[in-house]
TrEMBL record:
Pfam families: LRR_LRWD1, WD_LRWD1. GO terms for molecular function: chromatin binding. Its main location: nucleus. Residues 282-670 form the Leucine-rich repeat and WD repeat-containing protein 1 WD domain. The keyword Repeat applies. This is Leucine-rich repeat and WD repeat-containing protein 1. Belongs to the LRWD1 family. It is found in: Chromosome, Centromere, Kinetochore; Chromosome, Telomere; Cytoplasm, Cytoskeleton, Microtubule organizing center, Centrosome; Nucleus. GO terms for cellular component: centrosome; chromosome, telomeric region; kinetochore; nuclear origin of replication recognition complex. It comes from Jacana jacana. Residues 7-200 form the Leucine-rich repeat and WD repeat-containing protein 1 LRR domain. WD repeats lie at residues 404-438. Residues 210-278 are annotated as: Disordered. Residues 215-231 have a biased composition (Acidic residues).
């Protein structure tokens, strides 16, 4: 039975009323109301209602037919709203507040500004000027882009005499293409842009082809403070970012000895001739100083360690399969984790823990139960470092909802399973790799984490990778004293496991060794492993399937890595300059001690390597291109002795994010 009755409405009217049609102000706050309690038949009798307070309830959406034709002021603070598009049924609305609805974002602000033509105040702020821009300038530019896309790519595809099936097919292709390719404004508003683009495209088709337009939009989705944690809004985060000046000239060679780093000891690097191929295939976009301790612009010492691109949401109301690749990247270093829009250089969000030094971040997508047993997918970011604690952040809600005290020593790296969304691997300085089930938080963010497995290592694990062909069965780890493999299959009773194999590599004396630091490890494809630091100046590519026989049983055996090729790299013996791969494009990336990024396009080699008889390349493979560190100046002082700690591309190799030892995040874009 509904909580709302005629008697309740009359009693909660301000002032109390004897007839529903006479009520102009109504307070329905703090009644634990759910969406189903808002009976359209009862509300349709409130013909003269102008002010409605629904704050502090449990509403997740509005019914589409409340029929309040004279409503001017609406308060929905402190609910669980996921969508605002149903508010278009109140065209006279002038004031709207919906603060503390964690699933609503800036995209929803723009939607209501477009839908409600009379809206003047949103969450207490005058939005008249911005709303006019959204309704007019934004719409005009998007309409122009959508129309141009139709005329250039699709108008001529439809024959003069066309069938209903041909029209249906061209509509489907056009809507998918236009939402993928028409881009306008910052990345943080990409969902609003796609929503409007789809709406405009359907209107265009309705006009051009006589099709019905369907402009019913889709829903979308802030981090609270604790004693030692804090987050900043995009505007606050932007104020913390210093854009370092780039002088368009090559970096001068510096032969002085490098100073000591936070996690490494250094020796003077040898110089060598470096081949730079096609130097304009990637261009520098942004150089950001967004991880400074205490937001100090003088901080050029904070080391940046890890970056990962946000995955695409691929199910539920936030389905995003039409977008080719995310351009939002999470970076960590020092006391903070940042989310950056690679195209605009905007710091979208910033998360701080004053007593922490973050070493690693990792993404997963959880399908969460929102309310009324409905499910929705959300991206969750895990971050960890020196304290051995994993922080779990619901990014869209700006909320660090929990932590896992995973290890008593620092966590070097994190990695989520690609097949099990809640399975998280943590590799620690305690010489253990732990597998956790982080659970799925409920609508109140209650969750239960459990440890499923402990992998015992002989040395500190630095990098971990799951074998692509059997990610639930085998894990590789590059450690301080070798490269190891573990059986991680969960049907085995043994919860604490020793390594199953240690790999041997060629050494500098022409022999083989299994005792060496492996600080770079990644798969280039299903079989080819890329690892670094077996000896200075070399990166090895080797075959997993030909090196390790999965059918052979036994623990702690030594196996020889079947080497496919060596990559030329810097002769430095500096540690922790890690590598990464872009499997879709057959690329390997690795930075060096001079601020350069070495890029290897291996597409001409992978076919030969996939053959069972594939032979090792006799010569070292040179880099396809070396991106030189540009001349950066801050307060007229040139930044020198820049170490590249990490280099990561997005899945389509559109953006390249470079993390340094001098608190600079560099973003390059492929031309």
């Amino acid at each position: 039975m509904s909580k709302i009755t005629t008697e309740l409405l009359l009693e909660r009217a301000v002032p109390r009323s004897t007839r529903l049609r006479k009520i102009e102000t109504l307070n329905l706050s703090k009644l634990q109301l759910k969406t189903g309690d808002l009976d359209p038949r009862l509300f349709s009798r409130l013909r003269h209602l102008q002010k409605l307070d629904l704050s502090d309830n449990l509403l997740d959406k509005f019914p589409n037919s409340l029929t309040l034709p004279d409503l001017r002021v609406l308060n929905c603070n402190n609910n669980k709203l996921e969508d605002v598009t149903a508010l278009k049924q109140f065209p006279l609305l002038e004031e709207l507040t919906y603060e503390n609805n964690v699933y609503l974002t800036r995209n929803d602000d723009y939607k209501v500004m477009f839908l409600l033509q009379n809206l003047r105040l949103l969450n207490g702020k005058d939005i008249t000027k911005l709303a006019n821009h959204v309704r007019r300038v934004n719409s005009r530019k998007l309409t122009s882009k959508v129309t141009a896309h139709w005329e250039k790519f699709f108008r001529d595809q439809l024959p003069e005499k066309h069938t209903a099936e041909q029209v249906k097919s061209i509509k489907k292709k056009f809507l998918k293409s236009v939402q993928t390719n028409v881009v306008y404004g910052p990345s943080s508003l990409s969902e609003f842009t796609r929503w409007r683009v789809k709406m405009i495209a359907e209107e265009l088709l309705a006009c051009s082809l006589g099709l019905d337009s369907n402009t019913d939009p889709e829903p979308e989705e802030k981090i609270d403070d604790s004693e030692e944690e804090s987050t900043e809004s995009p505007r606050e985060a932007a104020e913390d970012v210093d854009q370092v000046t780039v002088t368009p000239s090559k970096r001068k060679r510096n032969n002085s000895k490098s100073g000591s780093g936070n996690k490494r000891s250094k020796t003077q690097a040898n110089s060598q001739e470096e081949a730079v191929v096609n130097p304009r295939s990637a261009e520098p976009l942004h150089f950001l100083q967004c991880h400074s301790k205490g937001n100090s612009r003088e901080d050029f010492k904070t080391q940046l360690w890890s970056c990962v691109f946000e995955p695409l949401l691929d199910c539920g109301a936030r389905k995003d399969a039409i977008v080719s690749s995310s351009r939002t990247v999470a970076t960590c270093g020092g006391e903070s984790v940042c989310l950056i829009d690679c195209e605009t250089g905007t710091v979208l969000k910033k998360y701080k823990v004053a007593t922490e030094e973050f070493f690693s971040v990792a993404w997963t997508t959880l399908t969460m139960v929102i309310s009324d047993s409905r499910k929705k997918s959300h991206n969750i970011l895990a971050a960890a470092g020196r304290r051995g604690i994993v922080k779990l952040i619901h990014v869209a809600a700006d909320f660090c909802y929990g932590e896992i005290k995973a290890h008593k020593k620092p966590i070097a790296t994190l990695f989520f399973s690609p097949t099990r969304e809640t399975h998280l691997f943590t590799a620690s300085y305690d010489k253990r790799i732990a597998l956790w089930d982080i659970g799925i938080p409920d609508c109140d963010y209650n969750f239960k984490a459990s440890q499923l497995l402990t992998l015992e290592a002989l040395a500190i694990p630095l990098r971990i990778a799951l074998v692509p062909t059997c990610p639930d069965h085998y894990l590789l780890a590059g450690c301080e004293d070798g490269c190891f493999a573990w059986n991680i299959k969960l049907d085995k009773e043994q919860k604490s496991r020793p390594f199953e194999a240690i790999f041997q590599f060629p050494d500098e004396d022409g022999g083989v060794t299994s005792s060496h630091r492996v600080d770079g490890l990644a798969f280039l494809n299903d079989d080819v492993v890329v690892s670094k630091s077996s000896k200075p100046g070399c990166i090895y590519l080797w075959s997993w399937s030909r090196s390790f026989d999965t059918n052979r049983r036994g623990c702690q055996r030594t196996v020889s890595a079947v080497i496919l090729a060596e990559l030329e790299w810097s002769p430095t013996d500096l540690s922790y300059l890690t590598l990464s791969t872009c499997p879709a494009k057959d690329y390997v990336f690795c930075g060096d001690e001079k601020g350069s990024v070495w890029m290897y396009n291996l597409s001409n080699y992978t076919t030969a390597w996939s053959s069972a008889k594939g032979k090792r390349s006799d010569r070292r493979v040179p880099p396809t291109q070396i991106l030189k560190w540009p001349e950066l100046r801050e307060n007229r002082e040139q930044l020198s002795e820049v170490l590249i700690n990490n280099v990561v591309s997005d899945p389509t190799f559109t953006y390249l994010v470079v993390l340094t030892s001098v608190n600079i995040t560099a973003i390059w874009k492929k031309s």
